[in-house]
Amino acid sequence: MSHSPSSSCAAPLRVGIVGLGRLGRRHAEALAFATRHVQLVAACSPVESEREFARGELGVPRIHADYEALLQDPEVDAVVLVTPTSLHADQTIAALRAGKHVFVEKPLALNVEDCERVLAVAAEHPDRVAMVGFVRRFDPSYQSAQASVAAGEIGRPFLVRSQTCDRNDPDGFFVRFAPTSGGIFMDCSVHDIDLARWLLGRPKALRAFASGTIALHPGLAECGDVDNGLAIVEFEGGARAVFYASRTMAHGHETSTEVIGTEGKLLVGEHAARDRVVRSDARGVGHAVLADFHERFEAAFSREMIAFVAACRGEQTLDLTLSDAVEATRIGVAITRSLISGQVAPV
Amino acid sequence: MSHSPSSSCAAPLRVGIVGLGRLGRRHAEALAFATRHVQLVAACSPVESEREFARGELGVPRIHADYEALLQDPEVDAVVLVTPTSLHADQTIAALRAGKHVFVEKPLALNVEDCERVLAVAAEHPDRVAMVGFVRRFDPSYQSAQASVAAGEIGRPFLVRSQTCDRNDPDGFFVRFAPTSGGIFMDCSVHDIDLARWLLGRPKALRAFASGTIALHPGLAECGDVDNGLAIVEFEGGARAVFYASRTMAHGHETSTEVIGTEGKLLVGEHAARDRVVRSDARGVGHAVLADFHERFEAAFSREMIAFVAACRGEQTLDLTLSDAVEATRIGVAITRSLISGQVAPV
Amino acid sequence: MSHSPSSSCAAPLRVGIVGLGRLGRRHAEALAFATRHVQLVAACSPVESEREFARGELGVPRIHADYEALLQDPEVDAVVLVTPTSLHADQTIAALRAGKHVFVEKPLALNVEDCERVLAVAAEHPDRVAMVGFVRRFDPSYQSAQASVAAGEIGRPFLVRSQTCDRNDPDGFFVRFAPTSGGIFMDCSVHDIDLARWLLGRPKALRAFASGTIALHPGLAECGDVDNGLAIVEFEGGARAVFYASRTMAHGHETSTEVIGTEGKLLVGEHAARDRVVRSDARGVGHAVLADFHERFEAAFSREMIAFVAACRGEQTLDLTLSDAVEATRIGVAITRSLISGQVAPV
Amino acid sequence: MSHSPSSSCAAPLRVGIVGLGRLGRRHAEALAFATRHVQLVAACSPVESEREFARGELGVPRIHADYEALLQDPEVDAVVLVTPTSLHADQTIAALRAGKHVFVEKPLALNVEDCERVLAVAAEHPDRVAMVGFVRRFDPSYQSAQASVAAGEIGRPFLVRSQTCDRNDPDGFFVRFAPTSGGIFMDCSVHDIDLARWLLGRPKALRAFASGTIALHPGLAECGDVDNGLAIVEFEGGARAVFYASRTMAHGHETSTEVIGTEGKLLVGEHAARDRVVRSDARGVGHAVLADFHERFEAAFSREMIAFVAACRGEQTLDLTLSDAVEATRIGVAITRSLISGQVAPV
């Protein structure tokens, strides 16, 4: 994750966006209108409507239907990959070999082997930035919590409890997506896994146990997936983590994380208040809830792009490394194995 | 509020309850079943069903229809008056003259003159306890807050914001009660006034301004009352208080008090959670709300009786004095004058 | 848990307390001073100071050093056992055989066999009440939550997350107690286990997995115990539970439980606010925390005794049965086996 | 606040910033880097270091020391005035007469006459946007609350309680600024006044009463100002408002507003949590607090500029009008008169 000192601080970074689905558009708009020191110079998508969006709405000058063409474009310094997970590893490798910096959405891959292939290629290109989108690390609240832990404010941290819980989608869109998602733990908990490692000081994971249930979406049974999953991970040195992932929350998107130490604990994100309004009426006292992770992590998505740009321009190093992404996949794979076997799985 | 050292610590206090309406029954049950060192030996009410309740449900041996008869009863050490406000002053005086300790519900009287008559008689009976039921002083949270203020934890307190807000009663029972209640400030805010003086260290009140509105109960206009009232009180030395009283809350009973000092502030009772349950569902995240002051101050009503009994038995002195009750009425009267005149009123 | 219709509703229940340690004294005081329809007529303890307390402070007329003597006392209708866990089963059986109703503190026993012996004897005495002290069931917040679940307000409940977390005791008193406590799950989580079954509708437990760590008290290693433990339990029909027990909280006693259903979730007890006071000062905004379970469950301990008395007097049946206590032990034992073996344990 | 239909939707708005103090820089950075459809083409300041900042950090091409020069610049479509309050009225008038759209920081003026002069000139230039920076209207939480009120969710709103409370500045910088600030109500409460009118449906204000105290900054006495002020405002039709302004909070910046209606109430901003982190340690459970209004209203400042740009480009009309600013000053002036006279003041 090092970077060349020859990166010019003066010139803006020229970025090409790859994939303009919902999350891709968000990244593209941030790059086009709300990030300093960057120019969104190119866009790539096999989908005509997405290319039209880039051309018309964002005013992107260079439009490609083909990823290879984008990589050949000498006016592009960096690529941002918001593509299907199955493409992540190979596209990242190709970008690095083409001399581009690369940001790739999480997870890096659904198996450890692909992750390690990327790691090996990245090691051959130490002057190129390769960053995986663990966006929760760039959320102001998570950053504040991690800084407190690092400063010793809760003593020695030894337990993380973390959840990614989505509002139920009655249409069950994600059920159709399940066969390629890698399962609930690879799709949702990979964020929690990364946070747990980050907050606990990157201990080595030893074993995992998982259990799940299908509360509302029986269609998941076909591919061995569940809509509510629990996992315990044991780390070397005694630290532990518990993860909970759900697709069936009634109230909204509630992503939260607790880190417990010998002198205190920190809890990030509980209750998922949409804003600073408290309502009191005949139904009681309460507040509205965040709809989804886009709403929850709006600021974090912006800061993530700012961090990527700063890293590419050599202004700042990243605490988040490719190795972190590999370890998150390694643990997620072990948890998934345990879910399927019903037994404790070595990591 | 002093007491005779000859009070025996060993013998239980023998109490007669006067008035067995809703609040009277609560006090009577507390005395009969849940307070140590006390015997509920007598009950008095002009209402047959109330006397029957005392006899049958509480097993009270001495039942009187007439207050004078109760006062003549040599087996009664103390009386607890839960009677209409218009009777408070004279009944308190009669009890003291009969040699009884006396607990009287708030307010002591609706005018300052009656309060001062009681004060004068009490001064002639320094060995009898006379206590007014400012129950919020006995609530654990208010006691904790006051102790913090007294310990200097918020520096010098200079502002109190306090409210007594009842859930709207669509039947408007209190409208019929309005002509004799003394108005919203005498009926509701008298608690807040007492708390403000207590928390601010009993400064002398100088001036008051009040304003009100009728949100839902036009019948109040006839007797010059409002269903939502605001008041500012200025104290000598610079301290200030703001009071809010409402009969029209949609969500429940929300009594709260904030005391602000030079080094911090304390807020008691906001949001009026009924219990420790948080609900998350399609309507958001929230909690149930207290229905009324009975539910809010259940523990305080018990502790209030315990404090009265302990004072009568000479085991403890009361921080809450008759003078406090006189001052609360004095300020309440000035606020009410301001509401009617529309101008600043001297206290 | 049935009761004889011949129980007189009129006569107060005559109770003997057995064991007057901290919790025993609390029960005894509640019975002596704050519970209707009951007389604390006897006390039993092998400890002279405890007998003296019962005689002097509580005014209990019949004092026994020997449990057998108490059971022979014809003036005693019911016994309340607050004795070491190792005695619970035999003392309960002896009480039933002596024709007494019996309340016994949790857990009923540390092994399933002892529980089943009690169950068998209780079955022979269907007119005697036998109740185990799962006090959290009598807490107003837990009762409200369970009523909501039973009323279908959160749809079908499928997951419980529950914790019993004590404030760290730097002296580590519990370390010396560890060899006989049955371990952290039997000592603390047994409450959470009972709640999970109650909230989920008493499904049959199938398997358990546990993992733990020692954060602060290395002395626990000797007896195979931990000071922080996690467990997942799988139930027939798909429901799941996650338990967390800790001896090392920095902030206080935080017992909380979340029950998640298909249409919402309920969370009981988070953040453990000591009272209704919010403080704002240079350190931020916050509140004080409950010190221990005595403070948290003060109201529940009273209600628990009221429920026991009412059941003995035939006025009400108990939802909490001896079978519930057996199942809680059965699950607790399986969790403990998993902690020791490191593998999934059948229940 | 109307706008010419001839405003081109295509061309970006060319803006000149006037004044580059702390808040000016924030606006300038938002315009330069984070707002679509706008170009920051000019900057104006009498201070050399501010001009240098605009040139060097923001890359602004046209730099002026003199406001008149900026107004003559034909490449400037709109000006953003972040200048001393005493200049607001005349600079706004000059901008309108020069054919520019104008955004001016609040308050529009410290007296009603100046406000009305601006209003008259604006009426002569109906195709130019003139907007006053009541930033709280653009905060997502305030917008959500106002939308709920407008949708009838709390019935008929009849009471607003609103506060602007700053963290105490031990250096008392604002004391030196006091003689020209217009006093605490004109400086701080003008926001609350505007919100109250907005939430209550713009009723006509009739009377005001104010009271204040000096808690920590005796230097304010010289200019008749206070560091803690309270005010009640009466509106035609029965609505009421209570304002609290403070310079002496120990914990941080806590701006909050409650609007109470016949069927519910909404509370915005209480407790001023800095982020989504809850800390539990030996001091209790709590959270960090916002430092100042910059931190609290970061998102609102951005949205405010976006709204100004959209209005200038004819894409959207503004709910916030110049008349609103005039009325806010009118009420603020009446409150201030009452503070000084000690009597009720007509508005």
UniProtKB/TrEMBL annotation, chains A, B, C, D:
Domain GFO/IDH/MocA-like oxidoreductase span(s) in chain numbering: 142-266
InterPro entries linked: Gfo/Idh/MocA-like_OxRdtase_N (IPR000683), GFO_IDH_MocA-like_dom (IPR055170), NAD(P)-bd_dom_sf (IPR036291)
One Pfam family linked to the record: GFO_IDH_MocA
Molecular function via GO: nucleotide binding; oxidoreductase activity
Keyword Oxidoreductase among UniProt keywords: yes
Source superkingdom: Bacteria
Secretion signal span: none
GO BP term, example: NADPH regeneration
SUPFAM superfamilies: Glyceraldehyde-3-phosphate dehydrogenase-like, C-terminal domain (SSF55347), NAD(P)-binding Rossmann-fold domains (SSF51735)
Gene Ontology cellular component annotations, sorted alphabetically: cytoplasm
Isomerase recorded as keyword: no
Transmembrane segments annotated in the record for this chain: none
Keywords of this entry: Oxidoreductase
Domain Gfo/Idh/MocA-like oxidoreductase N-terminal: 13-132
Gene3D superfamilies: Dihydrodipicolinate Reductase, domain 2, NAD(P)-binding Rossmann-like Domain
Protein family: Belongs to the Gfo/Idh/MocA family.
Full protein name: Myo-inositol 2-dehydrogenase/D-chiro-inositol 1-dehydrogenase
Originating species: Sphaerotilus hippei
